[in-house]
Amino acid sequence: MILEFFKLNKTCKHEHVKPDADFSYCPDCGELIENQWYIARCACCGVKLKANVNKNGEVISQEEFCHNCGSRGYVIQRLEKLNFIDIRYAVLVKAIITKEMMDFTQSWVENSDRFYRYKLLK
Ligand SMILES: [Zn+2]
Ligand SMILES: [Zn+2]
Fold first, then answer.
1. Predicted local confidence at residue 56, as pLDDT
2. How far is the centre of ligand 1, averaged over its atoms, from the C-alpha of 38 (Å)?
3. CA of residue 30 to ligand 1 center, whole Å
4. What is the C-alpha to C-alpha distance for residues 117 and 58, in angstroms, rounded to an integer?
5. Low-confidence ranges of the chain (pLDDT < 70)
6. What are phi and psi for residue 75, nearest 5 degrees?
7. Which one of 2, 8, 38, 50 has the largest count of C-beta atoms within 10 Å of its C-beta?
8. What does the pLDDT read at residue 20?
9. How far apart are CA 71 and CA 77, in angstroms?
10. How high is the pLDDT of residue 102?
């Protein structure tokens, strides 16, 4: 029974966590979940690009290149609050919040998607 629960816990997608609260406990696995919204922006001209999450849980740009200037570089930006105008660009990440992450500085570094990779995977 305990093993089963552990396995379930490992693969929980937190599907029953509602996206409208900043923090809530997942009813399936009991982890504290933070709803994090991200958008992608062109690194060159700064226009918004549609963000997506890949198989590794990394936030990436869904566009292959910028529709405005053609640049392939992009940065990932975390939104404090999801604005209506950002809905079509934003992707929701249901991140498990641990005690260590609560202590982790919330400041984010522009032009560094490695920072997000680190934060999302740990
Ligand atoms: Zn869960
Ligand atoms: Zn651009």
1. 84
2. 20
3. 6
4. 6
5. 1-10, 99-122
6. -125, 155
7. 38
8. 86
9. 17
10. 56
Q: Is residue 57 part of a domain?
A: yes
| Both tokens assigned to 23 | 């923090």
In a domain, 2, yes or no: no
How many Å lie between the centroid of ligand 1 and the Cα of residue 47?
33
Name residue 97's amino acid. I
| Per-residue CA distances from 78 to 28, 29, 67, 92, 112 (Å) | 26, 25, 21, 10, 12
User: Around ion ligand 2, which residues have CB less than 5 A away?
Assistant: 42, 44-45, 66, 68-69, 71
CA of 49 relative to ligand 2 center, distance in Å: 9
> Residue 31 has what pLDDT?
92
Tally of domains in the chain: 1
At residue 75, the pLDDT reads 96
Ligand that lies nearest to the alpha carbon of residue 13, given by its number in the listed order: 1
Range(s) of the domain holding residue 103: 38-122
Residue list, CB under 5 A from ion ligand 1: 12, 14, 26, 28-29
Q: pLDDT at position 120, please?
A: 52
